[in-house]
Amino acid sequence: MNDEIRSLEWVLKPESVVALVDRHLIGKIIFLKGYEPHPRIRLLARNPNGTVEIQSPIPFELEHKPVFFRILGRYLEMHGTIIQKKDAEHFTMRIDRLGVSVKDRGDTRIPVEGDEVCITNIQTSKYLIDTANSTIPTTVKVSFGEYERFLASEFDSVNIDVFGQRGTLLDEIRKTGKAVFLADATNPDSYSPADARFIDYGRFLGAGLQKQIFEYRNKKVRSEAIVPVMYVTHDRTEVPIGYLQVQSRTKSFDVSVIDRLKQICEEMIEKIRLSNTVYVKERESIVNMSLSGMRVRIRNRELASYMMRQSGFTFDVLFRGQAPITVYGLIRSAAKTAEGHLICGVQIAGYTDDTAGKARYESNVRGMEQKYKQKMQMEMKKQ
Which InterPro entries did the record assign (predicted)? Predict the structure, then answer.
């Protein structure tokens, strides 16, 4: 995954760059991108030729091209080239370009220090289960096989599998999420849907309706029902991963068979979810947070390897001295540090307790934001 791409408006006029640097950056702290945590760099002075003198804990080499940022209401980003190395900490840099975000940041990012808040009870999937894949993890195949055998005594024919080729009836089930129900496979009237839950099989077949009826007769199929198998990810996204198809050669199904099949699918999916879920009780740290999300550091390498494959996960936010708040997070960015830790930008997509959990989270973050802003004002006065 790549780091977040921010929409910037680049400052083109040299006099505008000079004014921006003099007014907002000289004598101030800026932050170096590409490291976690971001090193603090001080802009000491601007030279008459437009270059700047900087002090850095990172020992830059000549021709190195660092990228810096600072939040000035809006996000500001500066690209430069090191043109002189004066000593281990002091450098002269040419400013190559300067950009300002086209809109204000929606929320303040609050640095987190110590154990004031962390995340724990992390749940994510071991494998990415995707409707676009024609192959599925072994755990899913095993579960499909178990339920085929379980249902064999209840129905004349049972098939649980992935969807397969595009343009087929099974693909229509995948796209629509609807079921197919044929009370009497030899009666053309049965191919019209009873309600919106079902695919219009007759319309799908069109001129091929009679051919399909003939095929069912040859195979002695009297009745058929097919439902999609919907996998629910940790961020509540429904993914159609396959289908459950049953047929009868001796009797006509009642429409209630659809409810029975959906119940079976729910049981099967719950077993798949349990076998495909990694649950980590360890506490992982939060680098910074806002009302809408957070940047977290994952030190558990096994967990990090699983999270790199996923788009989201479930976890508890634990403020010191409080009960946990369970949230669903979408992974918006991810990068590895030199130590092998995973740094994730996480957007909060929902709460298990939508009202109380959200209110408590936002109340805590606002309190932290107020303290942070007071601290920043004190630091600005010292500069």
Answer: DUF1577
